User: Fold this.
Amino acid sequence: MEDSEQQEQKRRVRYAVVGLGPVTQAGVLPAFKNAEENCELAAFVSEDPLKHKKLGKRYRVSLTYSYGDYDACLRSGEVDAIYLAVPAARRKEFALRAVEAGLHVLSERPLGLNEEECEAVQKAAAKKRVKVLVAYGLYQQEGNAKAIEFCRAGKIGEVRSFVATVASQARPADPRLDHPGGGALYHLGIDAIHVARKLMGAEPLEAYASAQRGTDGKAEESATAVLRFPGDRQATVFASLANAEASSFHAFGSKGDLRCEPAFDSDAECRHVVTIAGKRRERGFDPREPYAPLLLRFSDSILQGGDPAPGLSDALADVRVLRALERSLTEGRPVKVQLDRPVPAAAPRVPVKREFAQPLSRASGAGGTPFAALGDSKPAPQLKKP
Assistant:
């Protein structure tokens, strides 16, 4: 029996979760229950002893460390990988220390504040032969993935314009407004920028941003970004931490258009409205829990080999655009996006096959009417309760 248990543990990647903020508590930690196939929640790293006690009891985690004891956690031999959820300004530091210790890193987005920070982690990971993945939860929502696939397949023709809105209401003293590494673009706009790049199938040449600045040295509360792509195509993104919750994107092509709402990492039912040759069709997609698929997919790559998409070069491209927008805010003019290497434009396809990709409960409403152009969705059994 002991040999069987040891073999089972060897097939699991042991994670230390670094940073225990609200998103981590609400999404990441409960997801480990649905990722037991190859994941184990082994340790917490946080400065809050009350969180250690409360969450340790809830999730039966006995190994807890402060940030000052982080290196002891990495050297303990009790963890194989970290889930990195500290503020963006500290991600490079924590990621590099984990990589240097030979641990794999699954990080919240963005991985760093600028290209140099991301590249430093990328080079260190290659040298140490460990894996680093940036957690784009948007691909786990079928509505987002299908929209990208649909547009990339040319169903609405060449995508010529893209408009996105993503907003939420920040609470008082919200750390997402802390500078550097804070603000609406870094925390919310990054997903819309990523989708714009995928739908356009190219990298933006020029970026311009305007913003409603925060007070007392805080980062921008709201910002509008305009990206110019090859062929005089354009993407416009409005991101806000000061407005009612909203998320959508609208792609306009030479043959038709597609609207996706809510979009990105929303936990509500997503609806597509597609108009092609004057014919309007709608379809609904059940929301899916995003973190368990990320954990399972990343752990698969560690245990079985391979590199899960999107890769670090793709994540670096998003940061490069964010930096251009930041420069535009500072200089008050459009700026060139510095592209020093080609970046894959095709959207990574994440097949929905396992039991983790299942619909969350919905308060009301049935799914939309399927239509052949987007394929049929299939119902899946309920998630195990954490």
